[in-house]
Structure prediction request, 312 residues.
Amino acid sequence: MKQLRKDYFLEEYAFINSNTDFNFSSVINDVSDNKCLLCKPNSKTNELITLSSEISVKSENFIDSDVNDVSIENDLVKNYYIADPSHKKLSKLSVPRLHKLLSEVQTINKQMLSDNLKNIQIYANSGFLSSGNSIHNGFELINLPIISPTLKKEIELSKKSIFDLGICPICRIINFETGGPRQILSTVSFLAFCPWNSSHPFEFWIYPKSHQYSFTLIDDSELEDLAQILRSTLGGLDNVLNSPSYTIVFHNSLNEIDSEIHWHIEIIPQLSYNTGFDAGYGIFVNTLAPEKSAEILGKASRKELASLVGVV
Ligand SMILES: [Zn+2]
Ligand SMILES: [Zn+2]
Ligand SMILES: [Zn+2]
Prediction:
């Protein structure tokens, strides 16, 4: 089956080319070198590790770059790294530890907002293909002087969709995907599913079921629920692909009026190097239909959830 699938509401496409069986042996697995530059080897603390740094960055357009112009102020860029003290990947942490980690990420996110920092991005890199610390996974928060072009596009087209159809496109996607062939896992507050136009095998998204604008607005029971669905799906992904590299990206509303979006999380496995087709067209070739990814990942994630809650 070969299909060019367009996104639910964005001008984005994926080339679904799943006429052959997915070659699990082609996945580039993560390799640990057992050296961690983050922590002291014998520290016995159970407290989370929080590292922070700040730099100043000036955004400049080519045409504006005038050496005599000294009036443009630099923007303060803050960067945080929050990790569990153990050398466990996010996919191997207990749900209470992941809950604690997410809670700290939320606290720092709120602090950054109250410091009036804009364009805050939360993400995690796991594995060497996504430039992550292979033995010490953690979440990062950073702000930049410019809006993420990806998020800007999502916010604009979400607003257009609300104007045209009278409904939030992400609430619509939740209605489409709940109980469908691409659902992976559903909890009280969240839905995990492989998107219709997945760019990568086993790509999945986690959407809060209720219409919420920001990760900073969810309460503690929702945070615990998020820790459970994230841990189950990442654990499932790890079991299916034997430690793949992946990135986790949060898409939140901007810290500005009229810049809201139904917040969500996107998990993108990095299983191979990019190709000229990807770079040339800006369209990724996905060798596994999202329905098949969801079937495999759903089974593995449900098994993981069952073992986490002590059913098996
Ligand atoms: Zn470490
Ligand atoms: Zn919504
Ligand atoms: Zn998004």
Summary: The chain is about 30% helix and 25% strand. Helices lie at 95-114, 149-165, 169-177, 220-241, 276-281, 290-308. The CA atoms of residues 125 and 132 lie 4 Å apart. The chain has a mean pLDDT of 89.
